[in-house]
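Reply to dn_fold:

You asked what the input looked like. This is it:
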Amino acid sequence: MQKFFLNVDSPAVVAGQGVKRKVIAHSKELMTCEIDYQKGGVGLPHKHEHSQCSYAISGVYEYMIEGEKQILKAGDSAYVPPNAMHGCVCLEKGKLLDIFTPEREDFLS
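and this is what came back:
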């Protein structure tokens, strides 16, 4: 099992217009990702079987979970239950830390 994940070994991938995603560390049970948003970047509404926590490292976001919207700023966080429709719009450039359980295998291919 891999124990250390170096930034230089984790390429960012385009995850939408104005959005880049980087897998930071993962195991079968847990995954962390850094999501870099440009102002106006959109995390399109979607759902998946994974539990997810999002932590705003920086920036401002209009975050939506199951139709309920909340403005998240640096230091704020959200919990997304499995199969809940969610997404966000970046109002001010920043980064989110997304944590999933189990890992998002689709992010590794």
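The mean pLDDT is 97.
Hope that clears it up.
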